[in-house]
Specification:
With 369 residues, this protein is α+β, with helices and mostly antiparallel strands. The chain has helices spanning 85-97, 127-146, 152-166, 224-230, 237-257, 260-279, 290-306, 329-340; strands at residues 19-32, 37-38, 42-43, 47-65, 74-79, 82-83, 108-116, 178-181, 195-197, 209-213, 311-314, 320-324, 349-353, 359-361. The structure holds (3R)-3-hydroxy-3-methyl-5-(phosphonooxy)pentanoic acid (PMV).
């Protein structure tokens, strides 16, 4: 196990000038899903995801030496320019939980401003993008104060580890194109404690499109946190974790070869398995909506009729991610417009694609509004 606790990361407050750090970090969509965890946010099976591009969070972290002597985290928090007590409490709790890793945080006055590129009401989980953006800011701050994270690998591993503590799947958003989280033979450098970039893939996947169809913008009735917990007593848990491992091995072959049919079959099976696990929990619950099923059926009919490689996946919610290679984009957009958008709330969708991962922003930049 990695031990990032470091009591030496303490500053001489008198020598510290106020400063500001800013990162943009994208969301990600899992192809093999993480569903079930143990210990301190450790996954029960390895997972792999596409890093997205247009669905992102921008976060700035302003810091100044504290004048008072209180021992807690001194935080001001703004989301889209407004104070949000519920979000603030969550971030404050998270920062307290990692004070042994970043002890200097208790010596600073912190102002965090955050904003998403997508509407808050789009029903898109923002924890992956927001927690990865925050983790990147914290690691940049450590490096700025102590010069400790010089190599890219050290920086990325630690940022991914910290993001994981905030929200499991967030650890995969640190990397470009594809990321693997969890020990697996397909990536020798993989770990349960942080994600790694996965680059043994055919180029076709690097420009894959993701149309995120917003079936419902309502908040989920069962949170991911509660969903993971329900896996503990799910009778299918053990075979499920084994299945995820096997599917990941098979998926890695289709990622390498560019076999889109094999890719799509595994990815769709995974999405439906995730939701089947929810239905098979005690108590059972359903996050898909009738229109999620209507879209799935339409996508399968379209594929049968056209032979085009259009596939779907879902997160822990009713929205559908359409995954397809860039060269069929025009045909998919036409089909989407005519057939699928009427199943969406207010015809809402997000035009996304596989992206290059987080970028550090100029510290003068205003975060997404
Ligand atoms: O990172 P969490 O705790 O929000 O869980 C995410 C779970 C899924 O999105 C359903 C799957 C995944 O691997 O991202």
């Amino acid at each position: 196990m990695i031990d990032y606790t470091n009591p030496n990361l303490i500053i001489e407050t008198a020598k510290i000038e106020p400063g500001k750090i800013a990162w943009r970090s994208p969301s990600n969509i899992a192809l093999i899903k993480y569903w079930g965890k143990h210990g301190r946010q450790l996954p029960s099976n390895p997972s792999i995801s596409f890093t997205l591009d247009h669905a992102f969070t921008e976060t700035t972290l302003e810091y100044a030496p504290k004048t008072g002597v209180d021992q807690g985290i001194d935080l001001q928090f703004f989301f889209h320019k407004e104070e949000q007590p519920a979000f603030k409490a969550k971030i404050q709790k998270f920062l307290e939980s990692i004070h042994d890793i970043f002890p200097f945080l208790r010596q600073l006055h912190l102002t965090i401003r955050s904003g998403n590129s997508f509407p808050h009401s789009a029903g898109i989980a923002s924890s992956a993008s927001s927690m990865s953006a925050l983790a990147l800011c914290l690691c940049s701050l450590e490096h700025e104060l102590f010069g400790t994270l010089e190599s890219d690998q050290d920086f990325h591993n630690k940022a991914s580890y910290i993001a994981r503590l905030g929200s499991g799947s967030a650890c995969r958003s640190i990397y470009s194109h594809l990321a693997v989280w969890g020990k697996t033979s397909i990536a020798p450098n993989s770990s349960d404690e942080y994600a790694v970039e996965y680059s043994d893939v055919n180029d076709i996947y690097k420009s894959f499109q993701d149309s995120i169809l917003i079936v419902s913008a309502k908040e989920k009735s069962v949170s991911s946190r509660a969903g993971h917990a329900l896996m503990e007593n799910n009778v299918f848990a053990k075979p499920r974790f084994e299945q995820a491992r096997m599917r990941l091995n098979r998926l890695s072959e289709s990622l390498k070869s560019g076999d889109l049919e094999a890719f799509g079959t595994i990815v769709e099976d995974e999405a439906l398995t995730l939701h089947a696990l929810m239905m098979a929990s005690t108590p059972s619950y359903l996050l898909m909506e009738p229109n999620s099923l209507n879209i799935i059926n339409e996508v399968r009919a379209f594929r049968k009729e056209t032979n085009l490689p259009l596939y779907f996946t879902l997160d822990a919610g009713p929205n559908i991610h359409l995954l397809y290679p860039g060269y069929i984009r025009d045909k998919v957009l036409k089909f989407q417009e005519e057939v699928l958008l009427p199943y969406c709330e207010d015809n809402m969708w997000i035009d996304d694609h596989v992206g290059i991962g987080p970028i550090e922003l100029d510290s003068d930049s205003e975060v997404a509004q």
